Amino acid sequence: MKKDIQILEVKDVHVALIYEYNTDFKAKEWNAYILNNKETAIELVFVVSKGYDGETKTSPLRHSMEGLEPKSFAKLEFVQEEVLELNNEFFVTFYENGVLYEKKYLFKKGTVSEQNTINIPLLGTKGILAS
User: Fold this and answer.
1) H/E run at residue 79
2) How far is CA 19 from CA 8, 22, 45, 100, in A?
3) 1, pLDDT greater than 80
């Protein structure tokens, strides 16, 4: 029964957009990262990202990794400026100590700008955390 399904709250796992310099293209760009700020590792991490606004949708991108160590992060993808004009959703699923967790992270359209960045200590730089 539905009442028997326990949905646990995800804590200390985040998705962030970082505005950083790309030395290959000699330009600044937005990149998405997943952060594990937990004291324990997470395993079998799966992320599906997409942009949308009404009829406009991007193709979903899928990322997977075997795990993410405690207090670590991994780059997910480059995010084009045009896509930032849409809502950007990252649906994250992972295991921690054999328990399945999932959470949807959202960057609302028009909120991603250099002026809205905050300090993200785990990355040692400024960025935007998804809500």
Assistant:
1) strand 72-79
2) 31, 10, 24, 31
3) no
